[in-house]
């Protein structure tokens, strides 16, 4: 059963006012008034003709150097970026869990758990029922009562833990994780890897972007390797990682 079909996908970012140094509002206004076109629109072709099919129950790793297009591709699958060319078909609603997932810094961890749960489509009683599990899984309270403090008082690892715990509390058709585990400590990484394996068994598809090859080895059986927006390799984890490690000189 396919859950995600990506067919010859191209994503292009358009950066307005690049290089002109006149990105100000007054400059934009005067352009509008004088009916001149935007001086310089730079295009960044971030994904170039990627095609693959993902199936139910698969955990797929996404690797490649910085700026190779991994986050861009996940955003496109989540429907957050329009395709320049090609198509993305998904079965069910994909959820993207990124390093910048929208939690509110000024609200307490507790409020964020509740809001996050509601935002994922859980009902209020459902969120209340899962609340303690989420907090326990995150381990936020291991060092004192931090869940009742605002998120801005959390370390980056603590915030990442809470984000992952909220997202992982729900069954997802397609769950995409963009390096959310990277800032967690080793024990939390282990716990979240186990949770990823469970989510997969619940018949979903999981995508995991990581620069940590060990995390990929421990969770995924298939890996996509992106470089400069192109899909260089798509195959069994060991095969692709070996080629990648050779390429990066490890
Ligand atoms: N909002 C944006 N506007 C313009 N260009 C962007 C934007 N976001 C990303 N890019 C460009 O798109 C390309 C791919 O970026 P992307 O963030 O997808 O890479 P990545 O593989 O996730 O990298 P990393 O490993 O560093 O997270 C890069 O060249 C980047 O400069
Ligand atoms: Mg990225």
Automatic annotation (TrEMBL):
CDD domains: ABC_KpsT_Wzt (cd03220). InterPro entries: AAA+_ATPase (IPR003593), ABC_transporter-like_ATP-bd (IPR003439), ABC_transporter-like_CS (IPR017871), ABC_transpr_TagH-like (IPR015860), Bact_Polysacc_Export_ATP-bd (IPR050683), P-loop_NTPase (IPR027417). Pfam families: ABC_tran (PF00005). The keyword Metal-binding does not apply. One of its GO terms (cellular component) is membrane. One of its GO terms (molecular function) is ATP hydrolysis activity. Keywords: ATP-binding, Nucleotide-binding, Transport. Residues 27-250 form the ABC transporter domain. Belongs to the ABC transporter superfamily. PANTHER family: TEICHOIC ACIDS EXPORT ATP-BINDING PROTEIN TAGH. This is ABC transporter ATP-binding component. The lineage of its organism: Bacteria, Bacillati, Actinomycetota, Actinomycetes, Kitasatosporales.
């Amino acid at each position: 059963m396919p859950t995600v079909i990506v067919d010859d996908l191209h994503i292009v970012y358009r950066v307005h006012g690049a290089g002109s140094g006149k990105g100000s509002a007054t400059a934009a206004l005067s352009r509008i008034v004088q009916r001149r076109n935007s001086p310089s629109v730079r295009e960044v072709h971030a994904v170039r003709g990627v095609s693959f099919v993902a199936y139910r129950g698969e955990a797929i790793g996404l690797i490649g150097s910085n700026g190779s297009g991994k986050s861009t591709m996940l955003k496109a699958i989540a429907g957050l970026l329009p395709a320049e060319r090609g198509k993305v078909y998904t079965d069910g609603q994909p959820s993207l869990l990124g390093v910048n997932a929208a939690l509110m810094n000024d609200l307490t961890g507790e409020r964020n758990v509740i809001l996050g749960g509601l935002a994922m489509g859980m009902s209020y009683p459902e969120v209340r029922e899962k609340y303690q599990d989420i907090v326990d899984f995150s381990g936020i309270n291991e060092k004192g009562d931090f869940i009742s403090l605002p998120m801005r008082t959390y370390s980056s690892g603590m915030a990442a833990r809470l984000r992952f715990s909220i997202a992982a509390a729900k069954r997802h058709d397609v769950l995409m994780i963009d390096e959310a585990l990277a800032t967690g400590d080793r024990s939390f990484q282990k716990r979240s890897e186990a949770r990823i394996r469970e989510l997969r068994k619940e018949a979903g598809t999981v995508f995991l972007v990581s620069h940590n090859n060990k995390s990929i080895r421990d969770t995924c059986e298939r890996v996509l390797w992106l470089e400069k927006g192109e899909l260089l390799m798509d195959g069994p984890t060991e095969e692709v990682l070996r080629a990648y490690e050779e390429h990066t000189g490890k």
